[in-house]
Design a protein that fits this description.
The chain has helices at 2-6, 27-34, 86-93, 106-118, 142-152, 163-171, 188-197, 202-209, 229-236, 255-265, 280-286, 298-305, 319-322, 337-348, 351-368, 371-390, 395-400, and strands at 13-18, 39-45, 65-67, 70-75, 78-83, 97-101, 124-129, 157-160, 179-181, 215-220, 244-249, 270-274, 289-292, 310-312, 329-331. It has 2 domains: 2-185 and 370-400, Glycogen Phosphorylase B (Rossmann fold), CATH 3.40.50; 188-368, Rossmann fold. It is of the alpha/beta class. Helix 2 (27-34) packs across helix 16, helix 3 (86-93) crosses helix 4 and helix 7 packs parallel to helix 12 (298-305). The two termini are 35 Å apart. Mean pLDDT is 93; it is low at 1-8 and 396-401. The strands form 3 sheets. A 7-stranded parallel β-sheet has the order 3-2-1-6-7-8-9, sandwiched between helices. A 6-stranded parallel β-sheet has the order 12-11-10-13-14-15, with helices on both faces. Strands 4-5 form a two-stranded antiparallel ribbon. 44% of the residues are buried.
Length: 401
Amino acid sequence: MASQLEQEPFPRIRLAVLQRVCPSYRIPLFEKLAAVPTLEVKLFIGDDLPESKVRSASNLQSVPHTRVPTRFISLFRRMLPWHVGLIDELRRFAPDVILCEAESHFLGYLQAIIYSRVLGHRAALLHWCFISLPGEPVGGKVGRRWLKTFFRRFFDGFVVYSSFSKDCLIRLGHRPEDIFVSVNVGDTEAFLRKDAEEHSTKAEARRALGLPNVFTVLYLGTFDAVKRPDQVLDVAQNLDPKRYSFVLLGSGPLLAPIEERVRHSGMENVCCKGRVTTELSTYLRASDVLLVPGRGGIVFSEAMAFGLPVMVHQADGTESDLVLDGKTGVRLQTGQTAEIVAALEALSADPERCRRMGEAGRELVRENYTTGAMVKQIASAVHEVARRKNAGLSRSARTAA
């Protein structure tokens, strides 16, 4: 990738990345992005969001960044960060391109628009977001859709999480050539390494964890309403507890109620372990399938790197690229409990098919969906909008034409 980018006919491009925070799973991405020889990258972040899981990793020394003082403003029934002095910081850095974490950091990209379009610094603007979620109106609800449509007109290009996101933008009237798909994944290189280092069999991993040696269904993620972890218990209650085991890993507001329901219902084949770090590789090895009943995304690529097929209904759109129905997982049509039960029964009845799906998923991730692949697509978007800006083909010029 580096040799290819070195041949780009551009001087070194100054890239500002605006994020609310820098979580740990993003560090490998920004490290690799900062290592692209044609880019000079700086990340601009603020304070952790209070009473939220939106927070920066404790060690960001490997990522060029500036922390900006933050005020929190309640808007649209959400707590939005306003990075105080961000425009002054951008003036000092003088970026050629600004990559904006989009809808979640609305006030951040608003400042980028002011810097570039109102104050006349003419940095090219890239919008980085999932755009819409499967099962929801394209572009969001009417009021927010109008607001998003208005502000998106100021951007020169869009870096999107999935091909589903690209389709949504096209349906909203944007040109395909302005849209760059960078499928949103976790640190898949690290998970592929851990998979190679985990030499135990499924039976051995289960024994080490004290799990029964039966078909094992894994839920991995935050315990909140949009991810629907409670549906995993509904599924468990409809399957033979002697043939199926369910492992739920993660933390969040619904963890305690779910643990109470497991105890009250006497579900001996359901194991809630909370947030797991050191033993995560062993749990992934012990499992047969990852079940994602609600929203999610990053976890797909991580589980697939460990050779697990993924069962999903409507998550964040990345399933359109990662979960190929019948090849790397199962795409549920309705997401109803009865459908999930039937799909798990079919998968457990054909262990060889389950294994083939997992291996195909691992290979798909290894070949196409790594943080390196994300960086390549983001860098391509940056180079393209910079080229257009230098050629006088920025969005404002194209709109005027």
